[in-house]
Amino acid sequence: IINELNYTTKLKAIKNEVEIANIYKSQIRDGVAMVRFMKWLKENVGKVKITEISVSDMLRSFRAEGENYKGDSFGTIAGYKDHAAMMHYSATKESEYELKKEGMLLIDSGAQYLDGTTDITRTFILGPITEEEKRDYTLVLKGHIALASAKFLKGTTGMNLDILARRPLWDYGMDYKCGTGHGVGFFLNVHEGPHGLRQSGNTTVFEKGMIVTNEPGVYKAGKYGIRTENTLLVVQDMKDEANGEFYSFKTVSYCPIDLEGIDIELLNRDEVNWLNNYHKEVYKKLLPYLSKEEKSFLKEETREITWRKL
Question: Is 114 helix (H, G, I), strand (E, B) or coil?
Answer without folding.
Answer: coil
